[in-house]
Amino acid sequence: MPRFDHRETDTNSSVSKQSCETAASIARRLSTWSVMLMVLIASVRLMLVSHQEIATFSADDAAYTHIACGGFWGNAYSTYGYSRHPGYPLFMSLCTMLGLPLRIGIELVGLSAAWVCAIGLRRLGVGNALAVAAYSLVALHPHTITLFNRVLPDTLYAPGWLILSIGLAVGAGVTARGSAVRWGLIAGLGGIACATTRSESILVPVLIGLAGMLVAATSLVGRLCNRARPSGDGAGSNRTGTTSVRLLATVLIPLVVTLSATTTLKYINQREQGIFALADIDAQGFKRLYKVLLSISPEQPDPRFPVPADVRHKARLASPTYDRLLTSMESDPNAMHYQGACLRTTGVSGEWGSWTYWAMRQGAWYHGEGGLGRKWSNARELDDFYGQAADELKAAIRRGELDSRFTPVTFLPPDWGPLFRALPASSRSTWRAMTSNSYVRSAHESLSERQTRQFDASALRRTELTRLQTDPDFGPVIFWHSRHMVSMLDRVKTRMARAVAPATAGCVVVVFVGSVALVVINASLTPSRLRHHIAPEVIAASLILLAAASGRFLLIALLDASGIPALLRYTLPASLILPPLAAIVLHELVRTTSLALRRSEGETHRTTIDEPTPRFTSFRS
Predict the structure, then answer these.
(1) Which of 99, 165, 391, 454 is least surrounded by CB atoms within 10 angstroms?
(2) What average pLDDT score do residues 17-46 get?
């Protein structure tokens, strides 16, 4: 008989290990029936919105369409030209270049995010049924049907936040470098969508940093578990290598991709308008002025009014430049419009509330009687004006003419006591927005012909559908666009919207009750059989998704306490995270409960007495 030496045994063991890893990777893919069912659900989604088109709205919607018509940098510097982040207008321009209607383009982005969610859940070991269920809840979420009718950056931010969170969650458990690169790039794409579309881009590096810390904690837990095991089986020797691969997927690649995109856009803005920022409200002069205004101590602190009337009066006496700006704000009808918005929200007249920084920017562009009487050639010139006012106020503070307080956050008043006291009521308001169960077809606002044509041009609107929304009885139409069919589909979407509240509440209950049950059940299992417990990588993935959902929720609740009302479009990113998180917890709960029942019947002892205990190096297949 041939003789096998030690090297041959090692080679065979290595090949066997690679084969097992390949088989496990294949086992964690979506099954054929799952893919077919997901395609069917995507088709249902597109059928439900087949009659809907971008609706014409003023304010933010009209500003984004105007910016997108010029490809962001093609417009002259104007009142709202560079006040928005470039990510969403560039996405609109991309859809126009591809000949893709914006309503279809954003639908494809939303369905892609749902698809990434399902694939990520399978990679995390969740079964096909739960993965498809989570995909369905994301793809058919009624709030996305309502929101995607608007020209708003939130339509891109919400699926981007889901893609970023799922990418980091899966990256926390990969073992192969190829998988790390793939999921790191997926998370990076989500990071770009979030960091370049809305002002709260700080959440992106915070979530990435948290994912890195959880990966490090996972590695530490794995090492502590492996120390208590018998040595000699060779498992766990590549723990350091596995940790570096996971850090590559959760920290290095997403951070590099996101920072590269944002830095490139900032550099282009600096070349075009003289500011190294994504928008001129993020430029240093504007931020310094708003922060120093927040630092001036008010007579009666109220987080709803970050710069109240008494602070404005003190500031105008101390700074001639700010006095000119405030006079322009008080003379501009458009700036005074924000006082009306504050009055409707708070019931207090004469205040701008959390709309102060928009009123500041609006007032700086007013050229009428009492206004500044000039036009700004670029963002640098205007930012220098803001910076001059900030320097004058800081000098007055140093001279002791103004009482000041510590302000660590640029756009949040440091009234921490009132903020936290208002947080419970704001959390309830945020929850009501998150679970809104009404569906109303978006109505068109009356705009000028020029603005309407800009909507048609930048969003590539299907004009016949927009005519159907305003006049369902015009001319002959095919049966699918008849009034009866449109009404029937609207009734279906109305019934779907009624399920938002119970579905969202159900996901939250599954997450928290399931987590408590998992702790109790795992505590009852034999500590020496750690393979029955939840793998640290699965815990890390769950915590990443929990942080993504709860962090977004708390941010909106905090902003609501500071006077920015919680709206459906602000809470949507948190809503989309809950289905995959609930799927992971439910999968682990079923698996662990089954193991506990088997242990109570004595099957666990009979089937595992001679088996070596594997180490935590990868997800279970």
Answers:
(1) 99
(2) 78
